[in-house]
Fold this sequence. Notes:
Blueprint lengths: L1 H19 L6 H4 L6 H8 L21 E7 L2 E8 L4 E6 L2 E8 L5 E4 L5 E5 L2 E5 L6 E5 L4
Antiparallel strand pairs: 1-2, 1-8, 2-3, 3-4, 4-5, 5-6, 6-7, 7-8
Amino acid sequence: xxxxxxxxxxxxxxxxxxxxxxxxxxxxxxxxxxxxxxxxxxxxxxxxxxxxxxxxxxxxxxxxxxxxxxxxxxxxxxxxxxxxxxxxxxxxxxxxxxxxxxxxxxxxxxxxxxxxxxxxxxxxxxxxxxxxxxxxxxxxxxx
Length: 143
């Protein structure tokens, strides 16, 4: 009786494939869903079409910059994330540094052509000034 077994196997395969298929998504819901490319672009200000969408930078529902205080190897750094402009402004001592958003496979990365880079990923960050030695940064309560 191989036919009933073949029919059973075909049904099991069809059910397994159906379970793996993504459910249809309403376009209005897609823009707001946390895992969508549009949401990732809105959250980190990144390009939704970029490979490996970046993890979101600090996000606010409005267009105002988001202020975050960091401690980079003992040095206080104030970061103002401006997602609308696609940049971060870093106050490092008396120096104000504005870095444009840069391509990143993971995290929120900002860099300029002078070798300055600020890269946040999973609540921690790395700061490199003028291509120098990277400094490890953790969030602080300074702001």
